[in-house]
């Protein structure tokens, strides 16, 4: 196997293992991860990735620790969700400190989208035709709305009135999740691995971290596949805004449709 491909494959494996071990509280696993990190440290080209991933691990540990308190006993579900989503800031803190120490931009994708950039359908970088990002987003939001509408209608107006605040908070707070994966992590990994591998890594991390909020591992992998599109659109548009809008729409409609008990 080519050395570059080996390094990037090892990077994906290390990222996945760290998130799994942290969420399952596997001390032996974390010990093995540390030993592997020491061995990979001998390869100087791996050091930036290891430092970035270690900072992510510190942030995820803080996030999990804060959410281990019994906030589920709170009387209002909205407060629990807001607490959980705002605690994503703890993941961003070590990454922000790393950017400050290295004197590099914390997030490169916090800018106006390049709406007219062309992408391929259906796989962003390849497909049977090309459209601009503005049209792709409109079509995607329309497809999402049509797909969820039967569930929303079945729940009725009463359910909408009960959960509108929860849906708003859950949709709004996804911006912090995007800042972690399509913001800080995609910025660092794109520098270290290139755009496509960075999209793969951040999508895998995005999916796996959903285990911490109660999703089974198979569902986490489904989320990771969705993350590939989020990452690809961010790279193509050079902005997080399109995926923040897309992600917010999906989250809100999942709550309105009763498909997500958060």
From TrEMBL:
Q: Which residues form a coiled coil?
A: none
Q: Pfam families per the record?
A: Rce1-like
Q: Does the keyword Cell cycle apply?
A: no
Q: Any stretches that span the bilayer, and where are they?
A: 12-42, 49-69, 81-101, 135-157, 163-181, 215-233, 240-260
Q: Specify the protein name.
A: CPBP family intramembrane metalloprotease
Which one GO biological process term can you cite for this protein?
CAAX-box protein maturation
Keyword match Membrane: yes
- Provide this UniProt record's keywords sorted from A to Z: Hydrolase, Membrane, Metalloprotease, Protease, Transmembrane, Transmembrane helix
CAAX prenyl protease 2/Lysostaphin resistance protein A-like domain mapped to chain residues: 162-253
**Source species, domain of life:** Bacteria
């Amino acid at each position: 196997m080519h050395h570059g491909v080996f390094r990037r494959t090892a990077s994906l494996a290390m990222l996945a293992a760290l998130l799994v071990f942290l969420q399952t509280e596997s001390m032996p696993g974390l010990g093995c991860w540390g030993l592997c990190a020491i061995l990979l440290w001998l390869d100087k080209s791996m050091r930036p990735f290891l430092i970035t991933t270690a900072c992510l691990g510190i942030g995820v540990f803080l996030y999990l620790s804060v959410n281990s308190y019994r906030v589920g006993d709170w009387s209002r579900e909205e407060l629990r969700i807001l607490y959980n989503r705002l605690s994503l800031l703890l993941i961003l803190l070590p990454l922000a400190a790393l950017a400050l120490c290295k004197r590099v931009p914390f997030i490169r994708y916090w800018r106006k989208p390049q709406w007219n950039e062309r992408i391929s359908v259906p796989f962003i970088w390849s497909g049977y035709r090309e459209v601009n990002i503005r049209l792709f987003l409109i079509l995607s939001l329309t497809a999402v709305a049509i797909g969820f509408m039967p569930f929303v209608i079945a729940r009725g107006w009463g359910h909408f009135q009960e959960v509108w605040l929860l849906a708003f908070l859950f949709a709004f707070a996804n911006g912090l999740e995007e800042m972690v994966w399509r913001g800080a992590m995609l910025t660092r990994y794109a520098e270290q691995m290139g755009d496509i591998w960075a999209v793969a890594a951040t999508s895998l991390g995005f999916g796996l971290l959903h285990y911490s909020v109660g999703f089974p591992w198979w569902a986490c992998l489904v989320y990771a596949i969705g993350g590939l599109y989020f990452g690809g659109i961010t790279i193509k548009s050079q902005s997080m805004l399109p995926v923040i809008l897309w992600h917010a729409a999906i989250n809100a409609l999942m709550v309105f449709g009763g498909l997500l008990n958060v």
